[in-house]
Design brief:
The chain is α+β, with helices and mostly antiparallel strands and 92 residues long. Helix content is 21%, strand content 29%. A hairpin with a 6-residue loop joins β2 and β3.
């Protein structure tokens, strides 16, 4: 099950995100989304857990949990929607 984790402190990286979810069961991946240009966290990430029961328990326990003064938003990740491509900025 893929889990969305929002409102992460910008200092959190993949390993810390995995550690946050590990007490609730096996974590197959933990990825904090990083902005390419600045190499800074965008403040959200995704965690994958093979057990739906463990994932649902982690969501219940971690949603609204405060980390470094920020209340996490944790829920089941929704499928990514296809978005129209942005027009190119070079028109010439």
């Amino acid at each position: 099950m893929k889990i969305y984790v929002g409102n992460l402190p910008y200092s959190v990286r993949d390993a810390e995100l995995e550690e946050l979810f590990a007490p609730y069961g096996e974590v197959t991946s933990a990825n904090v989304i990083i902005e390419r240009e600045t190499n800074r966290s965008k403040g959200f990430g995704f965690v994958e857990m093979p057990s739906k029961t463990d994932a649902e328990n982690a969501i219940a326990q971690l949603n609204n949990k405060e980390i470094n003064g920020r209340g996490l938003k944790v829920n089941e990740a929704k499928p990514r929607e296809d978005r129209p491509r942005r027009p190119s900025s070079s028109r010439y």
